Amino acid sequence: MPAATPGRITVPDWLTRRITATHPAEAPTWLAELPALVATQLTRLGLTLDRVLDPGGSLSLVAYVHRDDDLTPATLKVSLRTPETAHEPDALTTWAGRGAVLLLDAHRTPTTSVLLLERLHGEIPLRSLAEPKAMLEATSLLHRLWLPLPAQHDLPGPTPKTAPGSGPALPVPDEATPLLTEAGETATALSASATERFLLHGDFHHGNVLAADRAPWLAIAPRPLAGERAYDLARLALDRADTLVGSPGLPAAVRRRLRQLAEALDVDHDRLRGWTLVRAVDLALSALAAGRRPEAELYLEFAGAL
Q1: Quick one: pLDDT band at residue 159, thresholds 50, 70, 90?
Q2: SS (H, E, C) the chain
Q3: CA dist 122 to 45, 56, 67, 240, 281, Å?
Q4: Taking CA atoms, which of 48, 66, 96, 240 is between 20 and 30 Å from 163?
Q5: Which of 90, 203, 232, 282 is labelled catalytic?
Q6: Which CATH number fits domain 126-305: 3.40.1650.10, 3.90.1200.10, 3.30.565.10, 3.40.640.10?
């Protein structure tokens, strides 16, 4: 079996920038070792590299591959192991291909997660559909992913960036300070009053749903959590935020979207509104930390409309 050579494997610049910005301590060593690590995994799994996807994932090198024995196409995902990515194989194992991409093989080290996945149509995300149709498909799929928690799981609960002690303070516009305060108080109250816990995708939006052969659409890239359904649905409520923010009557449009999503999935409207506020502010803080100020302002405007 011919071994893959590291020279064929190029780490996308976008991935290098994202990991360097979000995980500066781990980035230099992990990125330097990544091509050789991918080559080793190709050999271990009996795979041939077709191409590395650019940009790929925000914490992962993603490559199209095929199996040497039968030429079956697949996807190899090699991720920096973080609290967000550590439980991805656990969730995929629980779903077993029902509503999500099928996990074919998993290998974990203290710093890296290596997943071999079925090949989906990466060029056709759910975002390619018109918004009403995309939302209909998304809610149907998300409902299938909300399963009882696996026995003896160690999935974390939601940890909003606005929660006390969640991390270093970030510079935010003065006018956004009341939003941060409200989001922190809301997160604390919602966490304390939750009455249900399910397996959650954690990062479910139109970009993380792809067209597939064995089903119309399948979810990818979970950041699994144990929590209430309204938390997961809140991320979907924020999808295509730029479309809503750019439309007239933003508060009314936001209220209408929340009402429709809550009714479609039988989720408490007030809790959905609260978690949507929290997650909008969280996304704004993440964008600020990465230097993407226009994106941060977009999510803060959405939060303000709530």
Answers
A1: confident
A2: CCCCCHHHCCCCHHHHHHHHHHCCCCHHHHHHHHHHHHHHHHHHHCEEEEEECCCCCCCEEEEEEEECCCCCEEEEEEEECCCCCCCHHHHHHHHCCCCECCEEEEEECCCEEEEEEECCEEEEEHHHCCHHHHHHHHHHHHHHHCECCCCCCCCCCCCCCCCCCCCCCCCCCHHHHHHHHHHHHHHHHHHHHCCCCEEECCCCCHHHEEECCCCCEEECCCCCEEECHHHHHHHHHCCCHHHHHCCCCHHHHHHHHHHHHHHHHCCCHHHHHHHHHHHHHHHHHHHHHCCCHHHHHHHHHHHHHC
A3: 22, 10, 19, 19, 29
A4: 240
A5: 203
A6: 3.90.1200.10
- For the chain, the domains span 6-119, 126-305
Q: Compute the Cα dihedral for 77, 295, 236, 181 and give only its sign.
A: positive
What is the b/e burial string over 8-37, where b = at least 16 CB atoms within 10 angstroms of the residue's CB? Answer: ebebbeebeebbeebeeeebeebbeebbeb
Extract the tokens encoding 301. Answer: 């405007």
What global pTM score does this model have? Answer: 0.92
Our answer to whether residue 105 is catalytic in this structure is no
6-119 is classed CATH 3.30.200.20: yes
6-119 and 126-305 have identical folds: no
